[in-house]
Amino acid sequence: MANGNGPDRDSKAYSEFLSEAEEMLERLRGDLADLEDQRHDGGEVNPDLINGMFRSAHSLKGLSGMFGLDAIAGLAHHFEDTLDGLRLGRIALDSPQAGMIGNIIDLFGTVMASLGNEAEEDQMNASINELIANLEAGGTGTEEEDSQSVPRLLLDPTLMRALTEYEEHRLNENLRRHRIVLLVEAAFEILSFDEGLSELSSSIREVGEVISTLPSPGAAADSQIRFVLLVASDLDAPAMTRHIDSPNASVTAVPEDTGAASTETPAPAEKLEPPKAEPICAPPVHQQELSSLLVQADAPAPPPSSSVHYEESTSSAVDEEDAPHESPPPPGDGGRVPEEFSSLKSVSDTVRVDIRKLNELMNLVGELVMHRSAIGATVRTLSADAATARAGEDLGKTYKGLSRKLKDLQSSVLELRLVPLRQILDKLSRVVRRLRRELEKDVILELNGVDTELDKLMVEELVDPLVHLVRNSFDHGIEAADERVAAGKSEQGRIVIDAFQRGNHVVIQVTDDGRGIDPLAVRAKAEKMGVIVSGMELTRKEILDLVFHPGLSTRAEVTGTSGRGVGMDVVRENIKEMGGIVTIDSDLGKGTVTSLTLPVTLAIIQSLIVGSSDQFYAIPLNAVLETLLIDANEIQSSEQQELLNLRGEPLTLRSLSDEFGLPRAEDAEQVYVVVIGIGESRLGLIVDRLEGQQDTVLKPIQGPIGEVRGISGATEISEHGAVLVLDVAAIVEDTLRRRDLR
Amino acid sequence: MQHVLIVEDSATMRSLIASTLEDLDVPVKITEAASGFEALHCLPRDPFDLIVTDINMPDINGLELVSFIKSNATYRGIPLVIVSTEGAERDRAKGMELGADAYLVKPFEPEEFCSVIMELLAQPKQER
Predict the structure, then answer these.
(1) Residue A73 forms contact with B (CB below 8 Å)
(2) Quick one: which of B42, B62, B46 has its CA closest to B3?
């Protein structure tokens, strides 16, 4: 299957591979961040972490090989070698090769993204070869010293045979550290062993390391399964028995092979000295917390907290506690269910579905909705005629029942597409951790509302803009420590991300307590660059809004952190494509708030159907604030713009006919105004008729009409056929900009 | 109908192995386990005719699974193939020592895989 003869790139397996590879890379990034944190905190690194990374690299190698992606397989092979060296102690964590792990993961990401693009693939292969050459230049590390002066044990040969090379290394490593090697045996009901075994393993991990878990025959009853756990700990057998405190587990010490020379074997008294600092072994203070958490893991899950303070735990552990470090648990790890337990759960409780399948389902629901509307029209026709009124009434009842069920179906399908923002917010906390190290700025990230849900497709698209905003805050917003202290602020900077639902929208705010944006400086720059006319009258908000202008948003000086050629204009563009808007507010010296306002989903939307001249348009209802019927003489004209005094506030008006160059209704005494708004911007749209509300499925338009600004797509409506759907964000923005430039 | 248990933590690899098996000349039924623990749950449920397992997995590794199967009177007769990535010669030797019937290196050629599988499935059951 290698060498290009692998499964087709159109195959289901290939797309599965892509998504699995992406998951693995994401996991690797997370593991790397944890690894760096653990090193940063001065403790030793949890061997399970490196072994987990090794497993990911190993799978990547096997998979890319199966698909004939030789260059990627080659990179994965070297990556695996490096991690293998690390986990077997042949390569030191501070070696140049280990330092390249981040680069390797990044390159994987880029290479995976370039798959399918031949030109890029070639270029990628060159980058891969270069990186591999660098890795090879670093050598393969020193030979392991496992066999040196390590006491030999009298272990059951069956058990020894089942140990992988890595597990053997862990055994020797523990022996070298003079830890006691124990066998813990326990029998469980075969139907539910996972839970009991996870509990036992976790309990052991509090005071030691589980090197191997061997299922064994020979349990008392057929319905049971017995496990032998090879364990290394500072506790001896009786102490371990007391610690585990379980009636069905027995602990025995593995006797040493007395025939072997073992001068280094520690005397029993030494073995009983208090545990040394070990990353694997949690400090006593944490033991109780951990076991109480484990109990909770068995109980029904509590409702997820909507506020998570990721960085707090690490920073307090590092800065405030003076304990010598016995590694604090990795951030966010407090409530983590033991690994085996969670991996099993995820397999049995969730189904992974290709988003395209959900789209198909959504389209089908959309079409059903259209048919329902057609039935509704028939009901009205039948009911209007006395001869068929009876039939109309009967059909009307069925129609109502159908409508209810259809609505349930629609919301269930919609719900499937919604995912919590947690996924991407977690990524951001990793970005911040990395920046904190790179820039040596002490900044904490606080996340609120991580369970706020948004359409899966949008969540993916939000990653880049949010990373950009956080980077901006970190790099340009938050001042250096001395500058902060001089300004009377705390040394530690703070970035807060709040996510919450507001009506049919989700709002995500990125707030920092940095230096803020100086409106005068922005204005000066805008004038210099000819973006605005010198001396033009602008409100503070309008000036701040200029940072989204392409010319102003890209900084002249490029920094490694935020100067990647992506400016605020790109952020605005990205958000606009999702039907949302970005606004910015800033208090000079105090900080900046950037708000993203997005529709919850793009799939099915409720629309208000309006008519102007002989045309019909659909306006997404989530953007409609209210509709008004006003006398034409209430409209005030000034400087070529029309305004309406709406409860004391001026509302800019725009005629839909003017927007699309249609003839305007002549001298109507009364006109309809649809007040639309997104974020904090408002606009009154003058239309000729209101036609009612409808569920609409937005479909993109191909060809030139698709390019027309102010139109986001088309939808089918039973009575009117295809109608255009207004892009409210674009219309509001264009009208307000026209007003500003006037 | 031959019933095959695939133990492999990568979903993609599981489907690749499954689709290779489905192309065999004999009809096969496939059960997939994403971890050693899942495999331990599957074993007592069905009488399997063949087991294909990876080595590097979370919870219990493939060698531990092989050791369990080959030392258990009920399962020891089931032919067992280890499929693992190259470079783990020591693990390979151990797997064979523990009683695995074959060892294949990923990436494997489907033809090679099929011929090994067919050979194992063709053995009369009592000799297993």
Answers:
(1) yes
(2) B46
- Residues listed for chain B: 128
Shortest distance between the Cα of B103 and any Cα of chain A, in A, equals 15
Q: Residue for token digits 């039935």?
A: A375
Residue A162 tokens, joined: 């089942």
* A340 in B contact zone (CB under 8 Å): yes
Query: Chain-wide mean pLDDT for chain A?
Result: 76
Q: How far is CA A286 from the centre of its chain?
A: 29
The whole-angstrom separation of Cα A58 and Cα A76 is 7
Give B40→chain A minimum CA distance, Å. 8
Tokens encoding A322: 């003076």
How many separate domains does chain B show?
A: 1
At A519-567, the pLDDT tens digits run 888 888 888 888 788 877 888 888 888 888 876 754 434 344 444 335 7
Cα separation, A172 vs A445, whole angstroms: 41
* pLDDT score, position A219: 60
Q: Rounded distance, CA A184 to CA A204, Å?
A: 9
Model ipTM value: 0.86
Architecture of domain A145-258+277-302: 2-Layer Sandwich (3.30)
> What would the two tokens of residue A600 be?
């919850």
Cβ of B10 within 8 Å of Cβ of A190? The answer is no
Q: What is the pTM of this model?
A: 0.48
Burial A45-55 (b: 16+ CB within 10 A, else e): bbbbbbbbbbb
Domain that holds residue B106: 2-127
Structure token digits, residue A509: 């705010």
What are the beta bridge partners of residue A598? A506
Distances (CA, A) of A309 to A375, A498, B127: 52, 12, 61
Tokens representing residue A384 in the block: 């209007």
- 3-state class of A537 per DSSP? coil
CA nearest neighbour of B87 among A174, A18, A82: A82
Q: Which of the listed CATH numbers 3.40.50.1110, 3.30.565.10, 3.40.50.20, 3.40.50.720 matches domain A421-599?
A: 3.30.565.10
Distance from C-alpha of A604 to C-alpha of A594, rounded to nearest angstrom? 28
Instruction: Give the mutation candidate from A205, A343, A354 for the B interface (greatest B CB count, under 10 A).
Output: A343
CATH number given to A12-144? 1.20.120.160
Chain A residues touching B12 at Cβ < 8 A: 13, 16-17, 20, 63, 66
Q: What per-residue confidence (pLDDT) applies to A177?
A: 84
Is the N-terminal amide bond of A330 cis, ω within 30° of 0? no
- For the segment A237-259, what is each residue's pLDDT rounded down to a tens digit? 889 998 888 888 889 888 877 65
> How would you classify residue B97: left for phi > 0, otherwise alpha for psi between -120 and 50, otherwise beta?
alpha
Contact (CB, 8 A) for A729 and A580 = yes
CATH of region A604-741, choose from 3.40.50.300, 3.40.50.2300, 3.40.1190.20, 2.40.50.180: 2.40.50.180
Chain B residue numbers with beta carbons less than 8 Å from the beta carbon of A147 are none
